[in-house]
Amino acid sequence: MGGLNSMIKGKTYSTKRRALLSVAFAAFILSSAAPHSMAMDKSAGNLDWRTFYVEGERKLKTQELEAAVSAFEQALKSVKQDKNATADDEAMCLLSLASVHYMRDRFYEVVVPLYKKAIKLLERKHGKDSPKVVPPIVALAGIREDEGDYNDANKLLTRALAIVEKADGKTSLTYADYLHRLGRVNFKFGFPRKAEDMYYASLTIVMQQKVLPSGEMLEQHLIDYIDLLTKSENRGKIFESAFQKELLKDSVASVERTRGVSASIFSREVSSRIAQQSASTNEEERIFPEPAGLDGSRTSPSINPHRGMSDFAALEEINKQRVAFYERMISTDILSLGPDHPSVARDLSGLAALYLSQRKFADAKPLLLKALAIYEKSYAPESSMITRTKALLQLVDDEHNPQSPANTVATDYVSSLPPVPLAAQKLEVALRLNYLAFLLYCQGKMANAERIYSWAVASTAKAAGEQSLLAASSLIDFSRVLRSTGRQNDAETMDNTAQAILRRSISQNALKSLP
């Protein structure tokens, strides 16, 4: 379980790395805002500061920090002497120089003064409430956070958030990012409840985006949110999650059960015959090829009508042999072991599964009923054989009843869920969404848990498949939350959907286990 939790929680970025990313982003924004300044136009006459700046960027990429510092210092000196340079140009040089010093762990004595000077330059040119000043403010906040000065970081991020809210509104991705950063600072500052509210609001904005530039921001938001809840004093009552149980079973137990198990002799013989049949057909086509067309081309072998009929006849013959095989096994076991021996039930179930694969439900049902009666005499009610046989019987009943919930809700439940961005349709995101929602449920935060579970189910269905066992397990957990919030009908629908998926999975597994 420790490995699973580690995978779900993930690794948070170090505060310094986050600050470095903010520094780089601030410089990038300024360079993008003034493309004319970076143009290498020899007719301009003043290329010194640009040349030095480009050299500094090159040295920074190769981690030659001393050389990068020297180049950026020269660029800053030259840009001040360039009459055509703007405040944006000088601020960009200041921020790039600050980023190199920050990488060299020079905080107070060099980095902070450079940032403050860059911010003042931009404020004079664009105004204190201009979005132009936001990137360096956020970058400086990241440095303050790294230093442990959460009070100053909080003030800087609050200011940046107010500017972004006025410029872009509360639904922008930038607003969500800065709100999440502010929440993280509050958490470190000792205000976990305030931080949690900000995390939830930020995640809501991110999940409602139609497009995300990448999944990195979303995954980091989830990791931080999970980290907060796992460190909360109110851990709540720990329940059992169907999703985590299925995840553990899929990643460990099922692999161990199938490892090193060879195919049955009967299966190998069937495969051999199919291969021989295919080879025979190919050889026949080679000896008697299709006539060439007028242009010299040949028609595709796939349109040969005799080949389809040949494959169908071969499959019919194989199925007849399988039926005969099971009938012989049933007769032999009854004679040697008695009519109520579990081996007889096993053979009956095998023959029933074969009929199910052929959609001969009327032939399969009486065999399953006989197998169930034998199993109930030999095993406890909760045994896997009894549970599996009952599930197959329910599958037969569902197929006979078009109005069964299994036939109406198992295929369209995704349409009732909120849309999630493409970046959220990944298994890593699905795992974290499910775990986050589960933690909220354990702590009694039902409204938030319900909303995040709706995203979790949608993400799981997209990432693992709408009819996957992981999706079914997520639906089971979601239905429990829906019941807790009084949505009984919706919970029943989700439960029916999950059970239908589980029954179909059991049926498919039964078919896969046929010899």
Structure description:
The protein has 515 residues and is mostly helical. Among the domains are: 11-230, Tetratricopeptide repeat domain (Serine Threonine Protein Phosphatase 5, Tetratricopeptide repeat), CATH 1.25.40.10; 413-500, Alpha Horseshoe (Serine Threonine Protein Phosphatase 5, Tetratricopeptide repeat), CATH 1.25.40.10. 75% of the residues lie in helices and 0% in strands. It has helices spanning 2-9, 15-33, 35-38, 48-61, 65-81, 87-103, 107-126, 134-147, 150-168, 173-189, 192-207, 216-230, 242-258, 265-287, 305-337, 342-357, 361-378, 384-400, 405-408, 427-442, 446-464, 469-484, 488-512.
Provide the helix percentage.
Answer: over 70%
Which class do the helix and strand fractions yield? mainly alpha
Query: Which runs of at least 5 residues are low in confidence (pLDDT < 50)?
Result: 23-29, 33-46, 250-309
How many DSSP helices? 23
Strand composition percent: under 5%
Inertia-based shape: elongated
How is the biggest beta sheet arranged?
A: none
Q: How many E strands? A: 0
CATH H-level superfamily of one domain? Tetratricopeptide repeat domain
The level 1 CATH classification of one domain is Mainly Alpha
Distance between the termini: 35 Å
Which CATH architecture of one domain? Alpha Horseshoe
Q: From N to C, what is the helix and strand string?
A: HHHHHHHHHHHHHHHHHHHHHHH
Average per-residue pLDDT, rounded, comes to: 78
Report the radius of gyration as a whole number of Å. Answer: 33 Å
